[in-house]
Design brief:
535 residues, alpha/beta, seven-stranded mixed sheet, four-stranded mixed sheet, 20 strands, 33% helix
Length: 535
C-alpha cells in the first residue's frame, strides 16, 4: 500500500451518536475507523439537552409515539419508517443503559426513570440525563469507543470527497456504482490521505451552520450531505430546516440552546411587557410543535420591532429549576440571568436539518457500499417537522440496523485507487476570500431563506449562491485545500440544495412557510434532487 493510504472494513466519517453507535455494533467483527474533523468530543449530539423519545411508561405505547410523530411531520413522514423506529425505541434506550449511560432516576415512576414532556408530545416519554442528555450519552460511548481495539480514531481529519468506482475507471453502470472510501485531509500535517473501505458511512450531522444564527456547533457544515450530493446520491426535503424557538439571546452566549423541556415543565413565552402571546397563535400554546412556536416568535418580533422575546419559568420553585435544569441555570447565571427570578431572553435559531441524503431505515443510500446515518440522512422519520427528541432516537435505531446490514454484506473486490493529486495547485495567496464568502453566504441564507420565505427572496438567494459558487470553485481548483475551504465548499452546496428545494415546494407545510403559497396542498410529495452523474 502506498504512502498515506489506509484500508478499513468500515470507514465512518463523523463522531456523533450515530457514528459511535455504528462503530460499537461493528467492532466485534470489523476493523473500523472513525474520522472526525475536530476531536472525538465535538459533535451536535453532545449538545443535545432534552433527551430521547421512547414509549417506556405503562401509559404510553409505540402507537401513541407514532401518532405524535406523524402529526408533527405535517403529513410528510414515511409511516413505515416512523413505525419501525418507534417500535425499536425501547430496546435502543436499553442498549444505551447497558453501555453505562446514566439517565435521571425517578423512583416514583414505574420505569425507574424520570420522563419529561416536550412540544408535540401527548404524554411524558422523554428519558433524559438532567438537561445535558447528549453530553452524558457521548461521554459513555466515547469511553467504550476509546477502549475498543478494533476502532481507530483519527482526530483533526476532514473528508474532502467520496471515492466512487466510476471515478477510478471502473464504470459498471449507474445502478452498480459503489463507494470505495474517501480522500481525507490530515489537518495537522496538511496532506490529503487516501482511505479505502469495504463500506463507508456518512455520519457528519446537519447543516445549520449555513445560517448566521444557529444552536449547532461549528462542525455542522453539511459535509456529509454535500459529499453525498457530489457522489450522485439523491437528496430529499432540504427545504425543511428546523429553527429552534428558544436560543439564548445574549452577546456572549454563542449558540446556547434553552431546551424544549423548559416549556414542557411550564415555561411561558412572553413579550417585554410580560404579556403571553402563544395563546393567540395555537391552542397548544407553548407546547405547540417547534415550527409553530418559531413562526409565532418571528411574527411577534417583526410586528413589534423586538430583538427578542422572553421565556419565563420563574414561577416554579427554585430548587425544582436547579435540579431539572442545572446546565441552563448555571449558564444563564454566569451571564447575569437568574431564571428562578426573571425571564430568559430568547430568539429562534437554525437547529436541525430534516432533509438529507436519501436512505432506507437501514441507512443504505443510492450508492452501493455507502451508508448515511443520523442528521446527515433522510429516512422519512421527521417529515416536514421533526418531533422533539426523535433525533437521538433515529441515530440509535438506524445505526444499529445499519451495522447489521454491513455485517451481512458480501466482501467485494478492492479496486486500485489513485492518490490525491495536488501537482497543479499552490498555497492560497489570500485566505480573506474564504472568510468573506463564509460570512456573506450565512447572512444571505438568514435574510432570504429563514423562517418565513417568499419566491423573490429565494430567487435573490440563489443568484448570490451561484456567484459565490463560482468564486469558491475557482479557489478550490487553484489552491491547496484547507479545512475552512472544504467547509465553505460544503456549505455553498448545501445552501443551494436548501434554496432549490424550497423553490420547488409551492405550499406551506411544516417548517417551510411561504408567503406566496400560504396554504397546504391536499396532495403530499417529497422534494427529491439528484445531480446528473455527468456533472
Amino acid at each position: 500500500m502506498r504512502k498515506h493510504n489506509q484500508h478499513f472494513d468500515t470507514l465512518i466519517i463523523g463522531s456523533g451518536l450515530a457514528g459511535y453507535t455504528l462503530a460499537l455494533n461493528l467492532a466485534q467483527t470489523q476493523r473500523v475507523c472513525i474520522v472526525t474533523k475536530q476531536t472525538i468530543n465535538d459533535s451536535a449530539s453532545g449538545w443535545a439537552q432534552g433527551g430521547i423519545a421512547a414509549s417506556l411508561s405503562d401509559e404510553d405505547t409505540p402507537e401513541k409515539h407514532i401518532q405524535d410523530t406523524l402529526v408533527a411531520g405535517a403529513g410528510l413522514c414515511n409511516e413505515d419508517t416512523v413505525r419501525f423506529i418507534a417500535e425499536h425505541a425501547r430496546e435502543s434506550v436499553n442498549w444505551l443503559i447497558e453501555q453505562g449511560v446514566e439517565f435521571t432516576r425517578d423512583h416514583n415512576n414505574g420505569t425507574g426513570y424520570h420522563l419529561t414532556k416536550e412540544g408535540g408530545h401527548s404524554i411524558r416519554r422523554i428519558i433524559h440525563s438532567g438537561d445535558a442528555t447528549g453530553k452524558a450519552v457521548q461521554q459513555a460511548l466515547i469511553q467504550k469507543v476509546r477502549g475498543c481495539q478494533n476502532i481507530q480514531i483519527l482526530e483533526q481529519h476532514i473528508a474532502v470527497d467520496l471515492i466512487t468506482s466510476d471515478k477510478v475507471g471502473n464504470n459498471p453502470g449507474k445502478n452498480n456504482r459503489r463507494c470505495l472510501g474517501a480522500y481525507v485531509l490530515d489537518k495537522t500535517r496538511g496532506r490529503v490521505c487516501t482511505f479505502t473501505a469495504q463500506n463507508t458511512v456518512l455520519a457528519t450531522g446537519g447543516a445549520s451552520k449555513v445560517y448566521l444564527y444557529t444552536t449547532n456547533p461549528d462542525t455542522a457544515t453539511g459535509d456529509g450531505i454535500a459529499m453525498g450530493w457530489r457522489a450522485g446520491c439523491r437528496i430529499a426535503n432540504m427545504e425543511f430546516i428546523q429553527f429552534h424557538p428558544t436560543c439564548l439571546y445574549h452577546p456572549h452566549a454563542k449558540s446556547f440552546l434553552i431546551s424544549e423541556a423548559v416549556r414542557g415543565e411550564g415555561g411561558l413565552l412572553k413579550l417585554p411587557n410580560g404579556e403571553r402571546f402563544m395563546t393567540g397563535h395555537d391552542q397548544r400554546a407553548e407546547l405547540a410543535p417547534r415550527d409553530i412556536v418559531a413562526r409565532a416568535i418571528d411574527f411577534e418580533m417583526k410586528k413589534r420591532g423586538l430583538d427578542c422575546v422572553y421565556l419565563d419559568i420563574s414561577h416554579k420553585p427554585a430548587n425544582f429549576l436547579q435540579a431539572h435544569f442545572p446546565t441552563i441555570y448555571e449558564r444563564c447565571l454566569k451571564l447575569g440571568i437568574d431564571l428562578t427570578r426573571e425571564p430568559i431572553p430568547v430568539v429562534p435559531a437554525a437547529h436541525y436539518t430534516c432533509g438529507g441524503v436519501l436512505t432506507d431505515h437501514a441507512g443504505r443510500t443510492d450508492l452501493n457500499n455507502l451508508y448515511a446515518v443520523g442528521e446527515t440522512a433522510h429516512t422519512g422519520l421527521h417529515g416536514a417537522n421533526r418531533l422533539a427528541s426523535n433525533s437521538l432516537l433515529e441515530c440509535l435505531v438506524v445505526a444499529r440496523v445499519a451495522a447489521q446490514d454491513i455485517n451481512n454484506q458480501a466482501i467485494v473486490t478492492s479496486l486500485e485507487v489513485p492518490d490525491w493529486d495536488e501537482s497543479r495547485v499552490t498555497d492560497a495567496d489570500e485566505e480573506i476570500v474564504i472568510s468573506h464568502n463564509w460570512d456573506e453566504l450565512r447572512r444571505g441564507m438568514w435574510s432570504y431563506v429563514g423562517i418565513v420565505r417568499t419566491t423573490k427572496r429565494l430567487q435573490r438567494a440563489l443568484r448570490r449562491i451561484e456567484l459565490l459558487r463560482e468564486e469558491i470553485n475557482e479557489y478550490y481548483t487553484h489552491f491547496r485545500v484547507t479545512s475552512d475551504l472544504l467547509e465553505l465548499r460544503n456549505l455553498v452546496d448545501t445552501a443551494e440544495l436548501i434554496v432549490r428545494s424550497a423553490m420547488l415546494r409551492h405550499e406551506s407545510r411544516g417548517l417551510h412557510f411561504s408567503k406566496d403559497y400560504p396554504s397546504m396542498l391536499t396532495s403530499v410529495h417529497d422534494t427529491i434532487l439528484q445531480k446528473p452523474l455527468s456533472c
